[in-house]
Amino acid sequence: MVEFRRVDTVHAAIRQAARAAGYGWIDTSNQGDGCPDAFCLSRGGRWLAIEIKSPGGRLTAAQKELWSSMPNAPWAIVHSFEELVAKLEELDQC
Question: DSSP character for 36?
Fold first, then answer.
């Protein structure tokens, strides 16, 4: 059964800022079943799966299950555009 959740309130602001800054963005927030909210392309050409959470937001059971099944996949939980940029820069340093 597909589990749909609401889109966190900061999602649109982070998406708009990322696109305005020239980052690639694929929005997958409507997929459900633990799928990440989006994939964002770093300046170095690497994709980062991101889960966007409002302050106090937590991963769902489906999200925890998905992420634990992919321990080597690059992913991050972010609460702001600045946090996203920091994670993308960190990814490019690996």
Answer: -
pTM over 0.90: no
CA pair distance 87, 53, nearest whole angstrom: 14
Flag whether pLDDT at 62 surpasses 80. Answer: yes
* pLDDT of res. 1: 46
pLDDT for 49 beyond 50: yes
Structure tokens at 69: 């099944």
User: CATH number for the domain including 76?
Assistant: 3.40.1350.10
**Owner of token pair 């982070």:** 14
CA–CA separation, 36 and 30 (whole Å): 9
Please list, residue by residue across 24-49, b when 16 or more beta carbons sit within 10 angstroms of its beta carbon and e when fewer do.
eeeeebeeeebbbbbbbbbeeeebbb
Instruction: Give the total number of structural domains in the chain.
Output: 1
